[in-house]
Amino acid sequence: MPTTRVALATCSILPDLDPDDVPLIGALAERGVEAVAAVWDDAEVDWDSFDLVVVRSTWDYSSRPEEFIAWARSVPRLANDAELIAWNTDKYYLKTLGEMGIPIVRTLWLDPDRHLTSQAIHTRLPAHGDYVIKPTVSAGSRDTARYQENTAQARGEAILHARELLRSGRHVMVQPYLNQVDVAGETGLVFIAGEFSHAIRKNAMLSRGHRPTQGLYQEEVMRSVEASEAELALAQRALEAARTILGTAAESLLYARIDTLPGDDGEPILLELELTEPSMFLAKAPASLERFADAIAARAAR
Ligand SMILES: Nc1ncnc2c1ncn2[C@@H]1O[C@H](COP(=O)(O)OP(=O)(O)O)[C@@H](O)[C@H]1O
Ligand SMILES: [Mg+2]
Fold first, then answer.
1. What does residue 37 show for φ and ψ, rounded to 5 degrees?
2. To test the ligand 1 pocket, which listed residue (261, 273, 275, 279) has its Cβ within 8 A of the most ligand atoms?
3. Does the beta carbon of 180 sit less than 6 angstroms from any atom of ligand 1?
4. What are the backbone dihedrals phi and psi of residue 204, each rounded to the nearest 5 degrees, phi first?
5. Which domain CATH number covers 258?
6. Please, which of 56, 68, 242, 273 could form a disulfide with 61 given CB 3.0 to 4.6 Å?
7. 184 shares a domain with 84
8. Mean pLDDT of the chain
9. Are 127 and 45 members of one domain?
């Protein structure tokens, strides 16, 4: 029987994968699967030659999402699949989920085609409370920043930030800064093959006066945590809504991570539904490595 071969897709800055994904290679070898790291935009890779390609640390696509989606569509056996990725790489999907009754962060969407003036942006920024400006296509907190509510300087910087993103053709989100994240942090719920696996807690990422991050991703402080009933229920609802929209079965989602922030009343709110390239934090929950390897091996053997 020929060996089952799997590619773990990454980016050229991390050609040997994110350290958290490296143990997958050994775990898959134990299951008779030969896994290799492969850079998604490396023209030399023959994607046809793999039984399965799993998207992992492809974090440099946010400045060229069309290219990334075209690549995804060109790979014969990709997990998660290309249509899912096309839908999920642009945070406009949150708008749809919000309309379906999922609690999302209150968001103002700025369209680059409207050619908003500084004054027009100014009138759209919240008058009270800190707020966040970020592009709809982003990963790893890139180009994301928090602004203080009532200083003229912060307002000027925020307008400049929004204008720069819009000028480069990017869609922009303006959200109130959810203060509870400073105390409680963000909870990420990881699902493998449609089933809840483990949860992690991430510290707040955006301090006041912090410049928008330009690097590949911002360093994160993370620990394992037990998800609350409310967080689990929200995650299940969000996944179910995504499946309804995309017409996919539960187990056909090889991986998913649902990130939630506490609202002012402490109830969880959906920040992000990551079906494209979530860090899984396998090292934080050891059994999850085995679970993920099992799921990949099963999918590759189909
Ligand atoms: N509305 C918000 N309130 C508080 N923190 C936020 C908000 N939006 C983003 N953040 C912070 O910024 C980080 C990155 O934002 P996120 O929406 O998850 O985008 P990315 O796709 O870059 O991960 C989050 O992990 C969180 O710490
Ligand atoms: Mg995030």
1. -80, 140
2. 261
3. no
4. -55, 140
5. 3.30.470.20
6. 68
7. no
8. 94
9. no
What distance in Å separates the CA atoms of residue 139 and residue 60, rounded to the nearest whole number? 8
Q: What is the count of structural domains for the chain?
A: 3
Whole-angstrom distance, CA of residue 260 vs CA of residue 270: 5
Q: Which residue in 204, 260, 255 sits closest to 229, CA to CA?
A: 260
First-to-final CA distance of the chain: 14
* Pocket probe mutation, ligand 1, options 171, 261, 271, max atoms within 8 Å of Cβ: 271
Tokens of 285: 């929950």
What residue numbers bound the domain in which 262 lies? 93-103+180-284
* 138-184: pLDDT as tens digits: 888 889 999 988 788 899 999 999 999 999 999 999 999 999 999 99
What size, in residues, is the chain? 302
Place of tokens 């203060």: 179
Pair 121, 262 in one domain: no
